[in-house]
Write a structure and sequence with these properties.
Strand content of chain B: 15-25%
Radius of gyration of chain B: 16 Å
Largest sheet of chain B: 6 strands, mixed
Oligomer: heterodimer
Largest sheet of chain A: none
Strand order of the largest sheet of chain B: 6-7-8-3-9-10
Radius of gyration of chain A: 21 Å
Number of helices of chain B: 5
Shape of chain B: globular
Shape of chain A: globular
Number of helices of chain A: 10
Distance between the termini of chain B: 32 Å
Number of strands of chain A: 0
Low-confidence stretches of chain A: none
Number of domains of chain A: 2
Low-confidence stretches of chain B: none
Helix content of chain B: 25-40%
Number of strands of chain B: 10
Chain lengths: ~270, ~200
């Protein structure tokens, strides 16, 4: 069975739903109409472009090109993690924290899955590696961004408690134990919720896509379970690295709290 | 040399500051608000970056890791913070010396921190510090939230600790009468310099 292709007219008709939502938002003065339309346009352009990139990549499965596309995806995810922070780490760290933790986690889990589990030939075959990395990055990014956000907020809010603990002789690990746990938990909650709701409340997008494209539901489900587990592992590893690195950055070699390494949050309004 | 020695300590426009506090000696530091008294104590406790040397009983600060140094110099901040639910969880042992002396009964250890008054917090924060037996004491307005009676109790307890442990003490206060009660030597920090306090 093959996929039933969609015509440009089908998409144009579907876009009427976005226009209707935009009109409603304008009517209700929600102040999101412009952003909604730009985002919809952006998603269409970005996806069409990535479709072209993937088509070229699949036709020419060269390791160098796969690595380049993976790097671009990782750079974009790192930028997105930074953009979601109210308090950013100053300097290179603002970007590097998310980048490094996502690089370590998503690449390690991708290679494990491709070479160890799926057994593609070669292991970096773009038809598998790029979509897999995309799903891992998209989800790990959410967890890492939430964990870093929580870490920065909590360390700032609990500055006095941390410094009192330091004056009593605790080291940075002891003085931040509870809030590091809270940050890790914040990063893991989305994937925990996603796994809990999978199949009952929501049919995950990848599985839905495979079924629409003609795969058997059992094959689609097996892949979806694999993906969820991979995302859980990648998110866990990514948040662990991000919280560990972030905490180390917030203290110096004398284990003094250095809050000036976080930028002030933008003022409200 | 025994005791606490600051040599050329400088931070955020304050200093360089030289000061030697002998074992068992208490030095009071007065001075206008914003003159850097709190920053001075934080610098000695190595909570903020700074230049210069600090030694305790002949041991350079840099010879010890940050946490080990801070455990020895014992800073009490004017506003205490608490990070667990009950008072007792902040103490290293079930036995808390000095509780009764500061007007508490043992039951206070079971109380929720959220229900403490600011005066109770300040006295308990002092006991929390002393329970770890710091070698020196850096006290930042330790009686700011206390009435006259509790102030005297805290002064007496600290005096005994200082003599028993032969601890060098730096006591920051706004209260000149208190400075005269607790310290034989009184200094004034103003315009980034430490100087002998002019007689009243």
């Amino acid at each position: 069975m093959t996929i039933l292709p969609l015509s440009p007219l089908d998409l144009a008709l579907a876009s009427a739903l976005v226009l209707a939502t935009g009109a409603l938002a304008w009517r209700m003065q929600l102040d999101v109409t412009a952003r909604l339309l730009i985002a919809a346009l952006r998603s269409a352009v970005q996806l069409l472009l990535v479709g072209l990139v993937l088509r070229a990549l699949f036709a020419n499965a060269d390791a160098g090109w796969v690595a380049l596309v993976a790097l671009v995806m990782l750079l974009a995810a790192g930028r997105e993690v930074m953009a979601r922070q109210r308090r950013r780490f100053t300097g290179w760290w603002g970007y590097g924290l998310g980048f490094v933790s996502m690089f370590l986690s998503t690449f390690a889990v991708s290679i494990f899955a491709l070479a160890g589990l799926i057994g593609t030939e070669p292991w970096y075959a773009p038809r598998y590696s790029i979509p897999l990395l995309g799903m891992l990055l998209g989800n790990t990014m959410t967890g890492v961004a939430l964990a870093i956000e929580r870490l920065g907020e909590e360390v700032s809010a609990q500055r006095n408690a941390i410094e009192d603990r330091l004056t009593l002789g605790e080291d940075r690990g002891q003085a931040t134990r509870e809030l590091r746990r809270g940050s890790m938990r914040a990063g893991l909650i989305p994937i925990v919720n996603a796994m809990a709701a999978a199949g009952i409340v929501s049919l995950p997008g990848m599985m839905t896509g495979q079924i629409l494209a003609g795969a058997s539901p059992t094959d689609a489900v097996t892949y979806q379970i694999l993906i969820l587990f991979l995302i859980a592992g990648s998110t866990g590893l990514g948040t662990l690295v991000a919280v560990w690195l972030g905490t180390r950055r917030l203290f110096d070699e004398r284990q003094r709290l250095r809050l000036e390494r976080l930028s002030a949050p933008p003022s409200a309004g | 040399m025994a005791g606490l020695v600051l040599a050329g300590l400088a931070f955020r426009g304050v200093g360089p500051i030289d000061l030697a506090v002998a074992p068992g000696e208490c030095v009071a530091i007065l001075g206008p608000s914003g003159s850097g008294k709190t920053l001075l104590l934080r610098a000695v406790a190595d909570l903020d970056p700074q230049q210069g040397e600090v030694r305790l009983d002949g041991v350079e600060r840099e010879a010890l890791a940050g946490p080990a140094w801070r455990r020895r110099v014992g800073l009490l901040r004017p506003e205490s913070a608490w990070w667990r639910d009950t008072v007792g969880e902040h103490f290293p042992d079930a036995e808390v010396p000095g509780l009764e002396r500061l007007g508490f009964r043992r039951e206070v250890l079971q109380r929720a921190v959220a229900h403490l008054s600011s005066g109770e917090r300040q006295r308990l924060a002092l006991l929390r510090l002393l329970a770890r037996r710091p070698r020196a004491l850096l006290l930042d307005e330790p009686t700011a939230h206390l009435d006259a009676e509790a102030t005297r109790a805290v002064e007496a307890l600290l005096g005994e600790y200082r003599e028993r442990e032969r601890a060098p003490v730096v006591w920051v206060t706004h209260d000149r009468a208190q400075a005269e009660r607790v310290a034989a030597r009184r200094l004034r920090l103003a315009d980034g310099r430490l100087s002998e306090l002019a007689p009243a």
